[in-house]
Design goal:
With about 350 residues, the protein is of the alpha+beta class. The chain contains eight helices and 21 strands. Strands 7-8-9-3-10-11 form a six-stranded mixed beta sheet, with helices on both faces. It has a five-stranded antiparallel beta sheet with strand order 2-1-4-5-6, covered by helices on one side. It has a five-stranded antiparallel beta sheet with strand order 14-13-12-15-21, with no helix packed on it.
């Protein structure tokens, strides 16, 4: 549905030219919920804006289905309003002087994809029903909550029946409870309609919850692309590992195949073909706490030095060696266990991440 070949985007800056996207290749399949994930300045929003036609690249090609909408070499640039896209912004971008109904109807009555007047109401009310906002059709937009306004923006984008829906950090202005609520709504509605989605976020929990595929970006390049499960369990680099969740890092030396000497003791892990110095990553969720030693592999003693109550879980800081402190998530029964202080940490070898030391 979206095919991008060697896309390059540059910006003029005071000292010359800044290359935001050196050369991007990307394919998004029809009906796929595709997430661009990365830190600020990684190029993810720039890539989205190039697809939207808001920014003009300096080279490469962009296709929507089999339609060429941009080519530097062929001098093709299809105007944003003629690309058949829907877009949901971070700032909602709803018109405050209009009602909910009027906001959704406007692109159908005055936009590039106008529909016959007798079809407008049905199209608007259907789009509002998808996001459960049809009962608010006559309400002025300023009387809505932030989450409701974002759902109106989503309905407006869906009402024009876009070939692709672009979403640029649509949840970042919402509080935690509303983010989860609207996130669920977005996923449910887009899957129901079957629209292809290109979604930008810097929030790893959003990316993992929403994406069929995720492309992790940094410095204008795609570092790794895969399903949420693939990226979380097999991150290609330490940067990807950290961006997709908390990681405890441990320096070590490969003693032999599958054996690493570390400050906490000898660890068994998949070293692949690595030799010499390595970085060992252990996610807090991969550590199980035991009150006494069991003799299991990869079991090491530790001392609880801090305990933070997080509701359904307890976050513990555990000193494993003189300069090694692990973050561990435990269930509620461990609350108050700091009075005993001493625990044993068991780590699954299959869940450990091993990289060459840098």
């Amino acid at each position: 549905m979206i095919r991008i070949n060697q896309l390059r985007k540059e910006f003029a800056v005071k000292d010359g030219v800044f290359t935001a996207l050196p050369s991007i290749d990307l394919n998004v399949e029809k009906g796929e919920f595709f997430v661009l994930l990365g830190p600020s300045g990684s190029g993810k929003s720039t890539l989205l804006r190039c697809v939207a036609g808001i920014d003009t690249p300096q080279g490469g090609e962009i296709y929507l289905a089999d339609r060429l909408i941009y080519s530097g070499a062929k001098n093709v640039f299809v105007r944003p309003e003629d690309r058949g896209l829907g877009m949901v912004f971070q700032s909602y971008a709803v018109w405050p002087h209009m009602t909910v109904y009027q906001n959704v109807a406007l692109p159908l009555t005055h936009g590039a994809k106008r529909v016959p007047k007798d079809k407008v109401r049905d199209r608007v009310m259907y789009a509002l029903s998808l996001v459960q906002m049809d009962r608010y059709a006559d309400r002025p937009v300023p009387h809505l909550s932030g989450g409701q306004q974002q759902r109106v923006a989503l309905a407006r984008s869906l009402a024009v029946e876009p070939v692709v829906l672009l979403m640029d950090e649509p949840l970042s202005n919402l509080d935690a409870r509303l983010r989860e609520e609207v996130r669920h709504q977005i996923l449910t509605v887009t899957k129901m309609v079957g629209v292809t989605v290109l979604y930008v976020t810097h929030d790893q929990s959003e990316a993992l919850a929403l994406g069929d595929k995720i492309a992790v970006m940094d410095a204008g390049r795609i570092i790794q692309l895969g399903t949420p499960t693939q990226l979380f369990s097999m991150p290609a680099t330490p940067m990807v590992a950290e961006f997709l969740g908390q990681v405890n890092w441990l320096k070590g030396q490969v003693a032999s195949a599958g054996v690493i000497d570390t400050p906490v003791g000898r660890v068994l892990a998949d070293t692949r073909d690595l030799t010499g110095g390595v970085q060992l990553g252990i996610r807090p969720s991969s550590i199980e706490l035991m009150p006494v030693a069991t003799g299991a592999a990869n079991e090491f003693p530790g001392e609880i030095i801090e305990e933070i109550f997080l509701g359904e879980q307890i976050q513990l800081r555990i000193r494993m060696a003189e300069d090694v402190v692990f973050e561990v998530r435990a269930q509620k029964p461990f609350r108050g266990r700091h009075h005993a202080k001493n625990v044993f940490c068991q780590m699954e070898a299959a869940e450990m991440l091993v990289y060459a030391a840098h």
